[in-house]
Amino acid sequence: MKARIKWVDNAMFVAESGSGHAVVIDGPPDGGGRNMGMRPMEMLLMGTGACSAYDVLLILRKGRHAVTDCVCEVSAERADAVPAVFTQIHLHFIVTGHDLKESAVERAVQLSAEKYCSASIMLGKTARLSHDFEIIEAQGGRHDQA
């Protein structure tokens, strides 16, 4: 896996992934930036949420559960001192579907946290991670998503 990060000006960079996708990274105005993009630590947090949400969705769909939506809300706290590493990260999953079983969603979240999500497992070496979830019954008829 590779990435290329090129300085544009002040605190702005353009990061390009090995797969050819690009994103602007910038700092706040009080840090020399123009607030034109996400902060690096925000990207790290969002990547962790996306990695785990992908796992949860994939596990549930492989189990032929009728998932219609999956949202991961991530909140974090950082150390007050430099380096301002994450000290606590909480991932809250909102899984919507038809007749979803609590045990299946709990298992998917647990498997992601303990086995599959490389990002959260890596960050768990320095931060305290926690997870929870809620299930929302989807409206309308059942459409099998598997």
TrEMBL record:
Extract the NCBIfam families matched here: PRK10738.1
Q: Which PANTHER family match?
A: PROTEIN YHFA (PTHR34352:SF1)
| Record-given protein name | Peroxiredoxin
Q: What is the lineage of its organism?
A: Bacteria, Pseudomonadati, Pseudomonadota, Gammaproteobacteria, Candidatus Tenderiales
